Amino acid sequence: MEMKYEDFLLTKEKVIPTTGFTPMPMNTALYKFQSVCVGWAIKRGRAALFQAAGLGKTIQQLEWCDQAAKYGDGPEPILTVLIIAPLSVAPQTIAEGKKFGYEVRLCKQQSDLRPGINITNYEKLDNFDLTKLDAVCLDESSILKSGDGKYAKLLISQCRNVRYLLCCSATPAPNDYMEYGYHAEFLGICSTAEMLAEFFTHDGGDTSKWILKGWGKKKFAEWLAQWAIYIESPGDLGFEDEAIKFTLPKLHQFEHVVESPAADGYLIAMEAKTLTERRGARRASISKRAALCAEKVLTAGGQWLIWCNLCDEGTEIARLIPGAVEIRGATKEAAREQHLADFIAGKVKVLISKPTIIGFGMNLQNCHQTAFVGLSDSWEQYYQALRRVYRFGQTEEVLAHIIISEAEGAVLANIQRKEDQARSMALELKGEMLETTQMIVRGAKKQTNVYKRDKIVKPKYEIHLADCVDLAREMPENHIDLTITSLPFSSLYTYSNSERDMGNCRNDQQFGDHYRYLADEQVRITKPGRIVAVHCMNLTTTKTNEGYIGMR
Asked: What distance in Å separates the CA atoms of residue 141 and residue 100, rounded to the nearest whole number?
């Protein structure tokens, strides 16, 4: 028996089923907003917490892992849970666990795993078979954003059948909406290609760029809010009393520009344009930038966290600042952890490193002075590095010094452009998600699309505003002489976010199922021998959606 039309429309709503379990009482150390987020994530089973730096993602992921281990399969047996974190973050997480009553085991390989909470870093993933785990938590899950990177591929493929998954990040998609697709793929929500086909279209002027469909922002946000909580303050969830405790201090950013030597054949230094030119400009100005940084540090005193982009920058800065400690890629793990512990304890006054080494996940708000002696083109690296000190829990006004050469203007402009773009994107998306997030997390009432009917009746014609299937069903048999229609071509042209919109379909199959309701009525209402004229066309294919470039 064919499904009723009204029931079919309900199947077009994007509802993602939960796969979790009923949460047990939370650790009393959690804030109310944290308990709500963790409880929601436990019930979801596979979820994401996208929260601003300093909102306590560590204790939240520990509580999620603890409950997954103890209650994910009932009271017995204890499940094996693995947290995967950036370099140097594991010792800090273990210490946080002890502070709040969680036992976390540091693991370097599969044989180290035990029932309960385990932790390792991304660089050791080759030593593990994630398919044998019961639950996996990604600390700083923005590692998924590239999709085709080594770790992203491994995580997505090996975690496909892991029962419980949690993603935690302050920058899940720093450059583009479509980067959320890799989180969705990791969590088993849908493939990246399916997300793109449903909510995105190609920019007409640049076929390599995906943009949200005109109607898609709200629907995309509602879909995202079903499996991710995106907040910058407890107030976003209605916890205004707790938002007061999470107030950022003032941030003062200072830009310092040193002279660049003129290239051969030029009278003055020219701004570097290409990646090769920018690297050359950085190397040519290392001594001047390092000297200016050392001057600032030695004059101001106190603790400093200094970020470099090149190894030679770190070497020169360490040479100029007595007692400075540098963490390099070659620094042994034990020494790295000791340096970080000494810096947090105040024993080390000046710490030098790269954003790629300790720029993600660390809580270093014991320091409020930081300097960037050289920038890469990655806004995410800059943001994350700055947020090691500029985060909730920081009690001092933060002073951030950016030291570049004249020739590096394009790098700074690029960072600033990406920052404005990321900020605008984040605020817009969070605003669109807020209603659905509050409805899901706190039970607020959601506004629904209103289906409106209207008509104009004249002696020689009628114009109807209606769902075409509804209108056709109301007509008598053998009533229409000629139908002229241009169908929405599956999801190529989606005119609204309504489930009644025949172009608002997730794939060709759903479009065909929807159109069949109209086609059946057209057969019934068209007079024998008369015509239904349908405008059709071939559609282009893409590598992402169909796997080949051509026509269909």
From this structure: 23
Amino acid, res. 134: D
pLDDT > 70 in the chain, percent: 89
CA-closest candidate to residue 425, choices 230, 267, 239: 230
Q: How far apart are CA 440 and CA 434, in angstroms?
A: 10
* Dist CA 325 CA 342 (whole Å): 10
Please tell me which residue, 503 or 127, carries the higher pLDDT value: 127
First-to-final CA distance of the chain: 31
List the structure tokens of 317: 């800065």
| Nearest partner of 48 among 31, 60, 30, judged by Cα | 60
DSSP at 115: S
- Express each pLDDT in 366-420 by its tens digit: 999 999 997 777 888 888 999 999 998 899 999 999 998 877 766 667 777 777 7
CB 103 within 8 A of CB 97: yes
- The radius of gyration of the chain's CA atoms, rounded to the nearest angstrom, is 28
Cα 63 to Cα 78: distance, rounded to the nearest angstrom: 15
Structure tokens at 169: 């990040």
Find residue 203's DSSP bridge partners: 206
Burial of 481 from C-beta contacts in 10 A (0-12 / 13-18 / 19+): exposed
Cα of 201 vs its chain's centroid, Å: 20
Rounded to whole angstroms, the Cα distance separating 57 from 60 reads 5
Report the alpha-carbon distance of residue 110 to residue 320 in Å, rounded. Answer: 43
| Pairwise pLDDT comparison (283 vs 5), residue with the higher score | 5
> Looking up tokens 């760029």, which residue turns up?
209
Model pLDDT for residues 182-191, shown as the tens digit of each residue: 999 999 998 8
Please state, in angstroms and as integers, the Cα–Cα distance from residue 87 to each residue in 42, 140, 146, 320, 334, following that order. 26, 11, 19, 27, 12
Condensed to tens digits (0 to 9), the pLDDT of residues 228-279 reads 999 989 998 889 999 998 989 999 999 898 887 665 555 555 565 566 666 6
Helix intervals (H) in 111-256? 150-158, 180-186, 192-199, 216-225, 240-243
Q: What are the E-state strand segments in 425-469?
A: 454-457, 462-465
Tokens of 461: 């014609």
Structure token digits, residue 549 = 């470039």
Of all helices (H) and strands (E), which one includes residue 524? helix 508-525
Which residues are within 8 A (CB) of 34 and not within 5 positions of it... i.e. 6 or more apart? 55, 56, 59, 60, 63
Q: What contacts 207, CB < 8 A, 6 or more positions away?
A: none
Q: How many helices (H) and strands (E) does the chain have?
A: 18, 21
Q: How much of the chain exceeds pLDDT 90, in percent?
A: 55
Q: What is the pLDDT of residue 186?
A: 95
Instruction: Select, from the ranges 218-222, 361-365, 381-385, 463-467, the one with the highest average predicted confidence (pLDDT).
Output: 463-467
CA–CA distance, 90 with 358 (Å, rounded to integer): 12
Q: How far apart are CA 67 and CA 424, in angstroms?
A: 36
